[in-house]
Write a structure and sequence with these properties.
Largest sheet: 2 strands, antiparallel
Shape: elongated
Distance between the termini: 71 Å
Radius of gyration: 30 Å
Number of helices: 17
Strand content: under 5%
Structural class: mainly alpha
Helix content: over 70%
Strand order of the largest sheet: 1-2
């Protein structure tokens, strides 16, 4: 290699900075184009209105909310994959772009509830339509600003709790100002369930992840480590054997060397046959090699990968499929009965088991540690992609719902229980989501991927699968849980197995969970007063 071909560390850093500059520019331009495109569409869609500035601020607040969901919630979802070195930041970005936006467009729903039912009873209050608009705008602003603060601190928090807090603060403030209601419009039992989720979610996630990763560690990783140690010992013995043979061969006379070489040539020919016996060998050199080869085969290094990983992958595929059917695709109203769902889950599980088993056989010639890394990396990528799709189809509503509700009020002049969600809104919020991941998601990714515990593909897969299992089980049982809190608990669960959980970092995160609703509510309350003062 010539001197000109060598690059200094500073030159490499400059190239990376230049590359990131174009990524920044591309996403900035894409985000601006999305905002302008949606603004023009919304302007033509709502018809004649005098509230153009309200519409403009709604679009800004809504896309700002989606941007911060991407920086916090999406970053939280991909943190384990990036932390385990399974994906680079840019690879995570591409997968997020495909599956988050795909989930939002394909399964984001054609209609949305204008208010999150069960938290604030706005239908029981005599609200003016524009007061409702101000509540939704302030809720978006309050939730988005709190998410931005949490993201800058590297704290993964619940976006759902954030928007709920924004709505509560703005609604109670409007109720007091207009004498149409107050604290009584808040369903405090539902707030109590949210408080319960602060403990229940991480606890369930941690317990499931702990036992799942413990089983993976004892059944696969420890077995592989012992097999690697045995293989390394055999490799060293083989090297020592060759050295001893060379030294002893050199001490022989020429006639003895000739005879021994002839015997070794015959043994080399015999050893190439299948099913030959040790007794057929003449030289001590090949007899000892035979014993070493026999010991190497008895190690059966790939036994755990071939036996347990396909079963684990099948279990993960069935759980992810169930999560997709009952959660990710629920807005499509597929009308598949329970028998059909079970058949789909079973067929996918069987197909994945067969595919992974075949794949495990094709990589037998690889180094065992490398093969283990590759298999768990692929499994982790699939779980992360499924999480992204489910997230795009569900949590995008935290930004889309209030925007759609505001557009509906501006268009009809009245408050309706449901509002249509235009596809262009889903696309633009999806773009803002991915842009947020790129611009501000790194701190949360660092927290989730390496701050709370050391993550590698096997532990990352265990955390993601445990989180999916708990989310699915909680959805079926109707338990009040947060997917964000579950995943954080799952990461700490695998950290307890490896005794590397960072409880010191967990303290400010837990505090952030507790103050999410009050913080978003406070900003929402202040925001609605300012909006009402300007536009009221």
């Amino acid at each position: 290699m010539t001197q000109d071909a060598l690059s200094s560390p500073s030159e490499i850093a400059e190239q990376k900075t230049e590359s990131d500059f174009w990524w920044h520019l591309s996403f900035g331009a894409l985000l601006a184009a999305s905002a302008i495109t949606f603004g023009l569409w919304a302007y033509g869609s709502i018809g004649q209105t005098t509230h153009y500035w309200v519409l403009a601020l709604t679009i800004i607040f809504g896309l700002f909310m989606a941007f911060n969901i991407g920086g916090n919630d999406v970053a939280n979802s991909f943190g384990t994959s990036v932390g385990a070195k399974t994906l680079t930041m840019k690879q995570a970005l591409v997968i997020a772009a495909i599956f988050e936006v795909g989930g939002a467009i394909l399964a984001g729903g054609e209609v949305t509830e204008t208010v999150r039912n069960g938290i604030v009873d706005l239908h029981g209050v005599n609200l003016q339509p524009m007061d409702f608009v101000f509540i939704m705008m302030a809720a978006l602003l309050g939730a988005a600003l709190w998410l931005l603060i949490a993201t800058q601190m590297g704290w993964p928090v619940s976006t759902t709790h954030s928007i709920v807090g924004g709505i509560v603060g703005a609604a109670v403030t409007i109720g007091h100002r207009t004498n149409t209601g107050g604290w009584n419009i808040v369903q405090w039992d539902q707030i109590g369930e949210i408080a319960m989720s602060w403990i229940l979610s991480p606890l369930l996630g941690g317990i499931v992840a702990y036992f799942l990763f413990l089983a993976i560690q004892r059944g696969i990783l420890v077995y592989n480590q012992r097999a690697d140690e045995q293989l390394e010992e055999i490799r060293q013995e083989r090297a020592e054997h060759k050295k001893r043979h060379k030294a002893s061969f050199e001490r022989l006379s020429e006639m003895q060397q000739l005879a021994y070489t002839t015997a070794m040539v015959r043994d080399a020919e015999i050893s190439r046959r299948r099913g030959f016996d040790r007794a057929d060998l003449e030289s001590d050199y090949f007899r000892e090699l035979y014993e070493l080869d026999d010991r190497e085969q008895n190690v059966n290094a790939f036994r755990a990968l071939q036996l347990w990983v396909p079963l684990l992958a099948s279990l993960g595929a069935m759980m992810i499929t169930a999560m997709m059917l009952f959660k990710g695709l629920k807005n499509l109203h597929l009308n598949i009965d329970n028998v059909g769902n079970i058949m789909i889950i079973g067929m996918i599980g069987a197909g994945v088991w067969m595919a992974v088993r075949v794949f495990a056989r094709t990589i037998r010639n690889m180094e065992l540690s490398r093969a283990t890394f590759i298999m768990f990396s692929w499994m982790q990528v699939f779980t992360a992609a499924a999480f992204a799709f489910s997230h795009g189809s569900n949590d995008i509503a935290n930004a889309v719902g209030p925007i759609a509700a505001i557009l509906d009020v501006l268009h009809t002049g009245s408050i309706n229980a449901k509002a249509a969600v235009p596809p262009i809104l889903l696309v633009c919020c999806g773009v803002a989501l991915v842009s947020g991941l790129w611009f501000i998601g790194r701190k949360v990714i660092t927290t989730v991927g390496s701050g709370l515990t050391r993550i590698h593909p096997a532990s990352g897969f265990a955390a993601e699968l445990a989180a999916a299992t708990v989310v699915m089980g909680a959805s079926v049982l109707g338990l009040p849980v947060s997917s964000t809190h579950i995943l954080i608990g799952a990461i700490l669960g695998v950290g307890m197995v490896t005794r590397s959980a960072n409880w010191g970092l967990m303290r400010p995160i837990a505090l952030a969970w507790v103050i999410t609703i009050p913080a978003a509510a406070g900003i929402g309350a202040l925001g609605v007063l300012v909006l009402r003062l300007i536009f009221g």
